[in-house]
Please model this.
Amino acid sequence: MELKANAPSGPIETRWERHRFEMKLVNPANRRKHKVIVVGTGLAGGALAATLGEQGYNVAAFCYQDSPRRAHSIAAQGGINAAKNYQNDGDSVYRLFYDTVKGGDFRARESNVYRLAELSVNIIDQCVAQGVPFAREYSGLLANRSFGGAQVSRTFYARGQTGQQLLLGAYQALERQVNAGTVTMFSRHEMLDLIVVDGRARGIVTRDMVSGKIEAHLADAVVLCTGGYGNVFYLSTNAKGCNVTATWRAHRKGALFANPCFTQIHPTCIPVSGEFQSKLTLMSESLRNDGRVWVPKRAEDVTKPPNQIPEEDRDYYLERLYPSFGNLVPRDIASRRAKDMCDKGLGVGTAVGGQRLGVYLDFKDAVKRLGRKAVEERYGNLFEMYERITGEDPYEVPMRIYPATHYTMGGLWVDYNLMSTVPGLFVGGEANFSDHGANRLGASALMQGLADGYFVLPYTVANYLAQTPRNTADDTHAEVRAVVDSVKERINKFLSIQGKRSPDSFHRELGKLIWDKCGMARNKAGLEKALQEIPRIREEFWENLYVPGSGEELNQSLEKAGRVADFLELGELMCRDALFREESCGGHFREEHQTEEGEAKRDDENFQFVAAWEFKGDGVEHQVHREALEFEYVKPTQRSYK
Amino acid sequence: MEKSLNLVLHVWRQKNRDAKGQFVRYEAKNISEHASLLEMLDQVNEGLLEKGEEPIAFDHDCREGICGACGMIVNGHAHGPRKATTVCQLHMREFQDGEEIWIEPWRAAAFPVVRDLVVDRGSLDRIVQAGGFISTRTGSAPEANSLPVAKEKSDRAFDAAACIGCGACVAACPNAAAMLFTAAKVAHLNLLPQGEPERDTRVRNMVAQMDAEGFGHCTNHYECMEACPKHISVEFIAQLNREFMSATARARQELRPRRK
Ligand SMILES: Cc1cc2nc3c(=O)[nH]c(=O)nc-3n(C[C@H](O)[C@H](O)[C@H](O)COP(=O)(O)OP(=O)(O)OC[C@H]3O[C@@H](n4cnc5c(N)ncnc54)[C@H](O)[C@@H]3O)c2cc1C
Ligand code: SF4
Ligand code: FES
Model:
């Protein structure tokens, strides 16, 4: 299989504009006859479904929550980037493009990234017109902040709830279309498989999560905007329901999965406090602007109350190791150093499973320097959130933080049109692999989701519809019946095993393994071990799973079982990809490939490509395909934060 | 050191919308004070699974207090005893060892029970469908800074927009009214200049839909604000009433035959 990126050539500033002109349009009078399925109503899917509906297409949108307003995008705190240069601090589309390619450690496609930077400015206009209450200055103009180590202030934000406000904007636009009758919304419907007829994506099979009804929905094209797969780790900052099922099922039907090992770990999350822990909570990265990270110098001090540990016995290790960036080093570096410290036995907080996984983030000096009031103004809501969760007051006792999985750069492979290797199957938002390379910059996921949904997919999907015969298959078509039957069979299988273990218990076991072996740092021996272990867990899953109740009712154990089954397959592919990629880049850190100072060492000569994996059947190894990456504009350099 | 609790739960179990429900007693043992209420229920559910029983169904997703999926009445309080806190963020340190905890679903005619603690809040979506938006076509928006909005106004709109659509206000209201929810959305959009052109139709259509869904009428008990996890203020209800009256008056004026 040859991977055709279909990216236009020529000067990078002109590519999207030209491509847009070359794409085919659908006559407004005919749009109603074209049906498009959009799975997912987060920023990407919500924006897309609303836009396609408004343009007059016949849209069916799906989400697993009870309302489209609850998609996981709602939880994003920090902000959204856009190259508006409102602060006149030297920002530009080109600079945002440059920063994103570099930040992604040179593993993303230049054409896509440029388009993203270009569209960022339209996103802000669109959202403001919808009534998104972004932060403003006293002049009434929009405010910005600098985020995630960027040297310019290009991040737009709405207090600590940017994702919520952007999603409500998209949700409201979507509900307007529901009211207009152009979009039919299917809430509490989970996509369980993809229907491919004569080589084209023509529909999906869903389960109505209330009645249990299994049903085929057919269309001319299918778009997956189903978010990331971070929950493969069990513990992550993702919402509990986030899953890989939609994309994994599509993968099994022929869509290649790209760079699955590229996952992002966020350094400032609240540490695990016990075996019961169900998810992790992110604390905004902005805390590192004023907080100082440290651990005790001596292992015997780790249980001492932190305020009784004198200055000379503390190791402010980030300031020591990175004198110029200090506590503000990039996410991956801050995360790995925290892990090193805890691996050395210097971690603090509650011991869980025999290990203390936490480091201090101390605001004592900030309070001294700025006064309590100023600290309160900057971080008050975050301190409150921390207090609510841990029961400790960060004004009095240093916070404890530890890294957690936060975002997945990998996803279904797509070309410049965001179409997967299955014709007619498009993928947007976190679910695709496209724009962030091996590492995503802060405040860029919201930007990408909305760019895909409002401004890219409406064109590229139309271009496909304009050139493709309409779907003729209906429920009686042999292929459609076969997929529906296989979904039913799988559900019956889950229910009939009647073993002893809950879906969650398998999920925890898998998550811990992936976190240990394919988390912040990876090595050959560990990955090989995981590749032996995962099939064993999977085997036990299919023999010893217990799901009570029936398929014809709301059954949350059944929902979990299906998701865990898919994570058990994805987890293996992640480890295989991590083992295959014999280099370190971005969020992928192979211990064998580091500089003398312990920094990631890329191997551009051998690994400057996207690894896209093809499913070859159960029990058969995946086959890798390579999409070579070329850098015409931003020349690869090694990162340095010393 | 870490405390652990033993609790007695009385949880509402109801197989589906039409089935009869009842409280069932469970013991929750060895619960860490650091666990959230939902994590406590997770543990109870794992125990039920071990015994081959069906776990308690409840809605949840983000577990960070922002998606609005979770919600249940805990000891008579929507989202439990702690102010401005969703149940997913309510930690067990708020409870005493040996305490009995009563847990039941939102109760409102417009929120039929789906199963156990899960209810159908589709009525809230339909209120938004009726007018909770600003009609802008994708791609046709003017340059964002071409329309300055006074910071105070924008902040005020944000205060209203912070609503997470959980429905606690309805559950807490003796009349099961959805006034706080509706008022918050109307205020968010009507406070902004972008929302101005549709302000009258918005408020009229949303209120009409609220009535059509079978929500009760507001008689100023203000229990909603007490229960609201996001501090949405009842001042927005007053604003809604004003908006509604003037919108209705303007509509009447337009309908009245013009006399020379
Ligand atoms: C805590 C947190 C904070 C973040 N902060 C920021 C930030 O400040 N800035 C930033 O840029 N990014 C941030 N991110 C990342 C960003 O929020 C996400 O990457 C982005 O919102 C994903 O949007 P999406 O539309 O792709 O998917 P989502 O919003 O995850 O939506 C997925 C949709 O798919 C549906 N779905 C999933 N599976 C199925 C299925 N099988 N069947 C049917 N429907 C399904 C869901 O119901 C949902 O509607 C943050 C992420 C987290 C976890
Ligand atoms: S107003 Fe408050 S209680 Fe009501 S739905 Fe919104 S957040 Fe929930
Ligand atoms: S689970 Fe999202 S608000 Fe509680």
Notes: Chain B has a mean pLDDT of 96. The helical segments of chain B are 37-50, 122-129, 151-161, 168-172, 179-190, 199-212, 223-227, 235-255.
